[in-house]
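Narrative of accomplishments. A recurring question from our advisory board has been how the design workflow behaves on a single, concrete structure rather than in aggregate. To address it, we present the structure tokens for one chain from the evaluation set, followed by the sequence designed for it. No filtering or post-editing was applied between the two.
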């Protein structure tokens, strides 16, 4: 059973917020994974303070996020918040007509932080290419890996 954090509902909400901020642009699943990671860990990328706490293993989140994001996007498509277009270049997701009205009706402090940060992510990353986003994130991921390597091994308890 999945908990409420990073569940398809929460990840789907973040995807709708991101797609609304970047509208009318559309993105493939891999780009959305990177954009979602940028949204919740924006402080690592020189943006607003991160929405989620900084944990040492946050680089590992990217590998796990794709499956949850796929479930989340299907959920948001059933709710008419996300549209899917299929072309020769692949499958791409875009905010549906209802998305902006839905997002603007949300008022929790968490969602308002997501909306503000999504505006920054959309400005910072969606104007460039997917490869530019990947290069920038690789630099961050490399730093996290180095930080993990520098941590001392856990001490053994003496009995």
């Amino acid at each position: 059973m999945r908990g409420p954090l990073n569940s398809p509902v929460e990840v789907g909400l973040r995807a709708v917020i991101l797609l609304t901020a970047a509208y009318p642009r559309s993105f493939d699943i891999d780009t959305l994974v990177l954009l979602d990671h940028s949204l919740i860990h924006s402080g690592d990328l020189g943006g607003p303070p991160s929405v989620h706490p900084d944990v040492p293993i946050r680089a590992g989140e990217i590998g796990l996020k794709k499956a949850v994001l796929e479930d989340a996007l299907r959920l948001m498509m059933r709710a008419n918040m996300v549209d899917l277009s299929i072309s020769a270049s692949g499958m791409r997701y875009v905010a549906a007509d209802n998305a902006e009205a839905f997002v603007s009706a949300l008022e929790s402090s968490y969602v308002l932080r997501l909306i503000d940060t999504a505006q920054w992510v959309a400005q910072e990353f969606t104007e460039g290419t997917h490869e530019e986003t990947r290069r920038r994130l690789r630099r961050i991921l490399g730093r996290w890996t180095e930080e993990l390597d520098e941590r001392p091994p856990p001490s053994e308890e003496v009995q």
